[in-house]
Amino acid sequence: MTDTTTVRNICDTALWVAHFRARETERPDALFRDPFAERLAGTRGFEIANALPDGNKHEWAWMARTYLFDQFVSREIQGGADVVLNLAAGLDARPYRMELRPGLHWVEVDLPNIIAYKEEVLANERPRCALERTALDLSDRNSRRQLFAHVNGLGSKVVVMSEGLLIYFTNEEVASLAEDLAACSAFRSWVVDLASPGQLRLMQRTTGKQLQEAGAPFKFGPPEGQNFFVPYGWEPHDVQGLLKTAAKFNRPPAELLALLPEPKGLPRNYPWTGVCLLKRS
After folding, report:
1. Whole-angstrom Cα distance, residue 251 to residue 80?
2. Are 202 and 272 in contact (CB under 8 A)?
3. Distance CA 115, CA 108 (A)
4. Whole-angstrom distance between the N-terminal and C-terminal Cα of the chain?
């Protein structure tokens, strides 16, 4: 990965996110610690954060999202999940940093250049569970169905996670992915992050402009919220907002405190982002 001063493609966003995990790790009151994030982000992650409009402004949101995914996935593992399927895993180091039982099977999926870069950086590290990686474009439906069939045979209770993925898909593409996941009998739960239509429009006007130029526009912010997934075989079981989570740990930006408490039903124009645990219907 060569250095430039702007985002070149969707893979660069993984470096950006790793930069914020590294910053959180440095805090004495860190909600999680990722000792691999700084290496994975490299200088490029720092440059991207400083090149994007408001690139450093939303550190609280990255912190809250990572924390909530940690909590939801850990809960599912403690509840008996024997396989984790991480779609668009990026530079996530959870198999290396979380407390995991050795018998757990973890499968990471991402684009070939992300997989190659990650394997190079972490070549001398040992994961805390069985780990396999697959280089795959998740928009290729036939290939992902083959992968899902493989993962379906690895265990009896699979938890799927798709951190930072769905926002780059259209509603139709998300529906197709949801149907393919629901078709696998062992896939019992799915952790996703969501944006309201109001938040989606806000993001499209800020950092989304440069990402769109790099071929990675923000697209998914369904007016139905978490209920979008119901017709495709997934019921929402727990939903947590990023701002509310940040406020819980005294991390919310002062200019957004007026948005608390979050209204029930999350109106379409309300600028909301959160993480949702879905269960098979």
Report:
1. 32
2. no
3. 9
4. 42
CA 146 to CA 151: how far, in whole Å?
A: 9
| Domain regions of the chain by residue span | 58-280
**Least trusted range by pLDDT, from 14-18, 119-123, 182-186, 252-256:** 252-256
Calculate the alpha carbon distances from 271 to 121, 166, 208, 261, 262 in Å: 36, 17, 15, 12, 10
- pLDDT tens-digit readout, 23-41: 999 999 999 999 999 999 9
User: How distant is the alpha carbon of residue 109 from its chain centre?
Assistant: 12
User: Which residue in 245, 221, 209, 204 sits closest to 61, CA to CA?
Assistant: 245
Return the CATH fold of 58-280. Rossmann fold (3.40.50)
Packing angle, helices 141-152 and 171-182, rounded to 10: 30
Strand partners for 20: none
Predicted TM-score (pTM) of this structure: 0.91
Please state, in angstroms and rounded to a whole number, the distance separating the CA atoms of residues 66 and 47. Answer: 21
**What residues have CB less than 8 Å from 78, skipping those under 6 apart?**
none
- Sign of the torsion angle spanned by Cα atoms 232, 234, 235, 241: negative
3-class secondary structure, 188: strand
Q: Which two tokens stand for residue 219?
A: 């697209």
In the numeric block, which tokens belong to residue 186? 């062992």
Alpha carbon distance 207, 265 (integer Å)? 27
